[in-house]
C-alpha cells in the first residue's frame, strides 16, 4: 500500500505529463494505438525534435514505453489502464463543470 507521500508523487507525475497540451495529445494518440515517432510528429504537426523532448518527459514519468521494432522504435502507453484513466479523468472533469477554463498559469494566484 502506498503512503500519502507516494500517492502525491504518483499524481504529481501524471499531472506533469498532462500539464502540456502536446504531451496530452501524444498520450491521447497512444491511447488509440502504438506509434512511431515520425508518425506522431506528422499527426501532431510538430517537429521530430520537439516530439522527442516530449516523449523523453513521458518516458521519464513512466507513462510511455519503447518497443524495439527492427531499426525503429515504437512508443506505447506503459499500461493500458492509463488510456482508461485519461478517459475517466476527461469524463469526470466534464461532468463537474463544462463551462470552466483553467486560468493562465502566468497569472498571479494560479497554482
Automatic annotation (TrEMBL):
Keyword vocabulary terms for this entry: Cadmium, DNA-binding, Metal-binding, Transcription, Transcription regulation
SUPFAM superfamilies associated with the record: Winged helix' DNA-binding domain
One annotated GO molecular function: DNA-binding transcription factor activity
Pfam families reported in the protein's UniProt record: HTH_5
HTH arsR-type domain ranges (all copies): 3-100
Transmembrane region(s): none
Highest taxon in the source lineage: Bacteria
Record-level GO BP terms: response to cadmium ion; response to lead ion
Protein's UniProt keywords contain Nucleotidyltransferase: no
SMART domains named among the record's database cross-references: HTH_ARSR
Task performed by this protein: Metal-responsive transcriptional repressor for the cmt operon. Binding of cadmium or lead causes the repressor to dissociate from the DNA.
Subunit note: Homodimer.
Name the UniProt record assigns to this protein: HTH-type transcriptional regulator CmtR
Species: Streptomyces qinglanensis
